[in-house]
Design brief:
11 strands; 16 helices; alpha/beta; Aspartate Aminotransferase, domain 2; Aspartate Aminotransferase, domain 1; binds pyridoxal-5'-phosphate
């Protein structure tokens, strides 16, 4: 198995051909899921004592398995948060896979870590974080939120010097991502649920009111810059003011929305983000990188290092020096240099191309909002801040939304699942793919008439 021979050379060409062909397709097929029984009938058992051989395994993947996966980069995939990796970033994912790089330490991966840090620097500069800010590419926003909150609590604990509140708590709102509640559960801390106004925007006044009523043990505020359901950006400047006044860690979860920092027409919504103690954005969402990639940054990386560095005799050679070891900044030790595909694409195309691509998706989202306002059978729930558009089809029941959504997928036309808001089922477009056009949007709206 560990030999590069003639047969492997042949397989290599087949694998590369497959990969290049997938990148060449325009548009990519939407595809759809199959049931376990359907897949078992079509594919059978693939793990055998003698092995299938690479040719046959690849063929099974190409014919049966890949076609049973929805293409998240299809221009009419508008559910959840889609993704649209650049060709360059996907190509470089192949390189990273072939290179056996250990991305956890400077000693082992200095070149890769240098490049990742250069890409992180761009994000830190967009956010206006200080020069010393730094961090690590982790798997996703979930791991990023957990890692940031662990660093925040570690810092709060150190400040109390042995004393501790009855319960540690994180301040959140109804718009906070589910992964923050999941992180709090893992950490065994409670949530302070802060009520916010009709527009869903978390403000300093909301926070101050909640803390004045009952602020015990609150060590962090989880603000959201682009919530997943609506794309609403919290009022970061006023939240930062209250956090500073009360000595509370400000974490800004911009897993989806952070790309908006690169788009001149919406950058003003992020005012105050420069005060964040920690900040994250998923390049695998709206910054055109393949899964899985979350850029996690700390204002003072030393605070994160104190919380996350794993200590063991066999690691002393790594941790005793002053090297920049990415593993010191998050949960996890072994890591793929998962920031490299994003870095390669950014280095290839330059930052202007990113600004233009993000701005283009915002433009299509504005078109969608205008088109919804123009058509009498649909109604916008909120003017979009970024590139998520939520609206109702007047008169539809929850079942009608589901039927409509199922039909779009079965017809191989679009993947648009409904969402909920205050108990009501509604429709939602999340637009992060620069290939999504105005006519894609109009075509989908036509199907609701
Ligand atoms: C997607 C998302 C997350 C979770 O990120 P993963 O990469 O899916 O783990 C967290 N917060 C927000 C606001 C998100 O949109």
């Amino acid at each position: 198995m560990h030999r590069y021979d003639e047969e492997l050379e042949q397989l290599g060409r087949e694998v590369l051909d497959y990969a290049l062909n997938r990148l060449r397709l325009d548009p990519v097929p939407l595809d759809k899921p199959r049931t376990p029984d359907e897949l078992a009938a079509a594919v059978g058992r693939t793990i055998t004592e003698d092995g299938l051989g690479g040719h046959r395994a690849l063929d099974l993947f190409a014919r049966e398995l890949a076609t049973s996966c929805i293409s998240i980069d299809h221009p009419r995939y508008l559910s959840f948060i889609p993704a649209a990796p650049t060709e360059a970033s996907s190509l470089f994912d192949l390189v990273v896979g072939a290179s056996s790089i250990y991305g956890g330490s400077w000693l082992e991966g200095s070149g890769a870590v240098y490049a990742e840090n250069d890409a992180l620097r761009w994000i830190a500069e967009l956010a206006g974080l200080p020069e010393e800010a730094g961090g690590v590419f982790v798997q996703g926003g979930t791991t990023g939120n957990l890692s940031a909150l662990v660093a925040a609590r570690h810092t709060a604990r150190a400040r109390l010097d042995g004393a501790r509140p009855p319960r540690w708590r994180v301040a959140v709102t109804s718009g906070t991502h589910s992964s923050v509640a999941a992180s709090a559960d893992v950490m065994d801390v409670d949530l302070l649920r802060v009520p916010v106004g009709e527009d869903g925007r978390f403000t300093g006044a909301d926070l101050r009111g909640a803390l004045d009523r009952d602020g015990e043990g609150v060590f962090a505020v989880a603000a959201t810059a682009g919530d997943t359901n609506f794309g609403t950006v919290d009022d970061l400047a006023s939240l930062a003011e209250v956090c500073q006044e009360r000595g509370i860690w400000l974490h800004v979860d911009a897993a989806y929305g952070g790309a908006g920092l690169a788009a001149p027409s919406v950058r003003h919504l992020f005012a105050g983000v420069e005060h964040a103690d920690s900040f994250l954005v998923d390049p695998h969402k709206w910054l055109f990188a393949p899964f899985d990639s979350c850029a996690l940054l700390y204002r003072d990386p030393n605070l994160a290092r104190a919380a996350h560095t794993q200590k063991a005799a066999y690691l002393d050679v790594l941790t005793e020096g002053s090297d920049w070891n990415p593993s010191d900044f998050s949960i996890g030790l072994t890591r793929r240099a998962r920031g490299l595909p994003f870095w390669f694409s950014l280095a290839t195309h330059g930052t202007r191309a990113y600004s233009e691509a993000v701005e283009r998706t915002v433009e299509v989202a504005r078109f969608a909002a205008a088109e919804i306002n123009r058509r009498s059978y649909v109604e916008l729930l909120r003017e979009p801040d970024l590139s998520i558009v939520v609206f109702r089809r007047v008169g539809w029941t929850s079942d009608q939304y589901s039927l409509w959504s199922d039909r779009l997928l079965q017809a191989n036309f679009a993947f648009v699942v409904p969402t909920g808001h205050q108990g009501e089922t509604v429709a939602r477009f999340a637009i992060v793919n620069p290939r999504t056009t105005e006519s894609d949007i109009a075509g989908i709206l036509d199907t609701m008439a």
